[in-house]
Write a structure and sequence with these properties.
Elements (H helix, E strand, L loop, with lengths): L2 H4 L7 H8 L7 E5 L2 E2 L5 E13 L5 E12 L11 H12 L9 E7 L6 E5 L3 E3 L2 E8 L5 H17 L12
Parallel strand pairs: 1-8, 4-5
Antiparallel strand pairs: 1-2, 3-4, 5-6, 6-8, 7-8
């Protein structure tokens, strides 16, 4: 099994992110990527929503909606990490003008203004030491037919090994 096989999706939706941030709106919101936190003066520079239709490498039609949140990772004098409530307010303001599906796939686009923008998926926020931390992981490319096949194999293995008793959550 190679590294791609072991990759665990940490995708969350916009709705999940906002629901969790509502628990502590005054807590600073810190995104971590490439092992480092974003700088205290980061900006949410753009929020966009898209509906996509595609054909994967197995000639299977695909369709999904996705929301992109663009972060500009800069440091401004005297700034601190924005509170979770401010981030949520930015998203609410965008939703006044752009239809944002709370169940859409969420992707972060991050750049420091010098390096090229990179795409990341987000983990669920964790409240750590009075601040929310959201780990961003690089969004790798994948082969969807292979991913589906691997998921089917994992399901087949877990269902064949599940207890046969009717009270099991694995049995129909």
């Amino acid at each position: 099994m190679n590294a791609i096989d072991k990759a665990v999706s940490s995708d969350i939706t916009l709705g999940q992110l906002l629901d969790e941030l509502a628990a502590a709106p005054e807590a600073p919101l810190v995104f971590l990527y490439e092992g480092q936190p974003v700088k205290a003066g980061y900006h949410v520079t753009e929020v966009k929503a898209g509906a996509f239709s595609a054909l994967d490498c197995g000639a299977n039609p695909e369709a999904w909606s996705e929301i992109f949140v663009q972060l500009w990772d800069i440091d401004e004098d005297g700034k601190s990490h924005m509170p979770a409530g401010r981030f949520s307010a930015i998203i609410r303001k965008v939703s006044d003008h752009v239809r944002l599906d709370p169940a859409a796939k969420l992707t972060f686009e991050v750049s420091d203004g010098s390096r090229p923008m990179a795409l990341y998926c987000a983990s669920s926020p964790r409240l750590v030491g009075g601040r929310f931390e959201v780990v961003l992981a690089a969004r790798p490319s994948s082969c969807k037919p292979r991913d589906r096949w691997l998921a089917e194999q994992a399901t087949a293995v877990s269902s064949c090994c599940a207890p046969a008793n009717s009270n099991s959550k694995y049995c129909a």
